[in-house]
Amino acid sequence: MVVFRDPGSVPENWKPAVEENLEEGSSMTLSDDVTPENLVSTSEALERRPAVRYCNQCQNGKPPRCHHCSVCQRCVLKMDHHCIWVVNCVGARNYKFFLLFLLYTFLETTMDSIALLPSFINFFRGAKHHSVSPGNLAVTFLAFVLNLAFALSLLCFVTMHASLLSSNTTSVEVYEKKKGLPWKYDLGRKKNFEQVFGTKKALWLLPLFSKEDMEKIPALHGLDFPTHSEAEA
Predict the structure, then answer these.
(1) What is the DSSP string of the chain?
(2) Across the 233 residues of the chain, what is the mean pLDDT of every consecutive 10-residue run?
């Protein structure tokens, strides 16, 4: 699924929701229904308006947490990294699938290593007494060593991404976070987890999202992300 799932692209001529509301507000001021309350709300929105980033390569706006991938030659929503193993970018819309891919591959290689362990032990006995052919010895030895090496490597990746998931951070954002300051997208471990896996426990270990989660969790679409102040409000 992570191979075929689009990580998320920026819509053409994208603008933040706040800016679209401001445009509506500015058109309202030109009409006959303008009131002092409308003017106040528009001025407050101008003060709260975030700085809109722009991608020179894509000639388009960049939503929060979006980065340009030099391999795919496009901006990816909540980009984590470009993975050569799945030949795809990992972003907002396929990050869950990537984590499940890591988890299940790690479990598979670990079980293979455990299953091959008795044969690996017998490998030394057979080599000592010359009771096994050299071909079988080589296959047994390589199969165990390769599976163990993959399992240990994947364990490091699973641990790293579990840490990133718990703090609602991507691999790219690790280098952007300012030391000593709280990360504005860190909403607590439970909410951080739900931002990626959804709220339906029955679907956590499946490459699926419920319709309800897709409607209620904007982070799954990759264009809007709640922050500390919004969560407290």
Answers:
(1) -TTTS---BPPTT---HHHHHHHHHHHHHTSTT--HHHHHHHHHHHHHPPPPEEETTTTEEE-TT-EEETTTTEEETT--EEETTTTEEE-TTTHHHHHHHHHHHHHHHHHHHHHHHHHHHHHHHHHHHT-S-HHHHHHHHHHHHHHHHHHHHHHHHHHHHHHHHHTT--TTGGGTSPTTS--TT---HHHHHHHHH-S-GGGTTTT---HHHHHH-GGGTTS----HHHHH-
(2) 90 76 47 47 49 88 94 95 94 96 96 90 69 73 92 97 96 84 92 96 95 94 86 52
**Short-list 115, 113, 117, 196, CA closest to 155:** 113
Instruction: Let me know: does 49 contact 95? Beta carbons within 8 Å.
Output: no
Torsion of CA 218, 221, 227, 231, to 10 degrees: 20
68 DSSP β-pair partners: 75
Cα–Cα distances in Å, from 88 out to 1, 93, 98?
A: 11, 12, 10
Reading the block at residue 98, the tokens are 């990537």
Quick check: is 55 catalytic? Answer: no
Query: What's CA 143's distance to the chain center, in Å?
Result: 32
Query: d(Cα 123, Cα 68) in Å, to the nearest integer?
Result: 50
Separation of alpha carbons 36 and 34, rounded Å: 7
- Considering 66, 75, 83, 89, which one is annotated as catalytic? 83
Write down the pTM of the prediction: 0.83
